Amino acid sequence: MKAEIGIIGGSGFYSLMENPENVEIETEYGKPSDCVSVGEIGGKKVAFLPRHGRGHSIPPHKVPYRANIEALSKLGVRRIIATATVGSLKESYMPGDFVLFDQFMNMTHGREDTFYDGNTVAHVGMADPYCEDMRDTASKVLQEMKIKYHKKGTAVVINGPRFSSRAESRLFSSQGFETINMTQYPEAALAREKALCYLGIGLVTDYDAGLEGRGDIKPVSAGEIIKVFNENVHKAKLLLSELVPRISQERNCACSTALDGAVITH
Asked: pLDDT for 101-125, tens place per residue?
């Protein structure tokens, strides 16, 4: 069974696909977060994988990122659309807004974050970790749908599962970063190591530990994240149903050549 496009996100996206079939996949990195559901969206074969497993049972620092990306790659996926909830570090990035990531800042530790940790050495370029072509397409679709979004945004990736302290949040905000998340790394980096196109779409659910000078904005809580996400998951599903048919089969972006010259051999 093969698929053109992979979707990584929450379990709320199962209903997007027509006649999905569950596929169990074993990889050399272990099992992925769950079985992969393969179906169709707009006439295109799509493989869906719930990042945290069914029932959100896997915390962010325990997600089998390598197995997830490897499983999608084995199914033939060459383009990945990944949705994620994010906290805002800027007042203008408001709860309910969508963000098309263009950068990440890794603040995690202890995660297995490369496929090249054995006898093969590769130094894969990561200057622009997100697919520009897919981001442009998503931007056009969001404009047409009149959904409020930001075409660029850096995701600071923390280990989790706890939220930030006020001091940590203040530091990230002072550096000019826009959003904070727990899963974009190493997911985006591993996709690049497989020369896959990766589009990260953030759904802003909160203002992290609050905003400096705004006593009316309270620190994030898990309950608030779930509430805002549930209110906006319908928009996210509509976006994916419009976006997937628009994704080009041709890959003329830098993602497809990411491994050219990266592997060191002597």
From this structure: 999 999 999 999 999 998 888 999 9
Catalytic residue chosen out of the listed positions 97, 102, 133, 206: 206
Burial class (CB in 10 A: 0-12, 13-18, 19+), 109: exposed
What topology is assigned to 5-264 in CATH? Rossmann fold (3.40.50)
**Given 97, 208, 216, 260, which residue is catalytic?**
208
Verify whether residue 208 is a known catalytic residue.
Answer: yes
The pTM of the full predicted model, rounded to 2 decimals, is 0.94
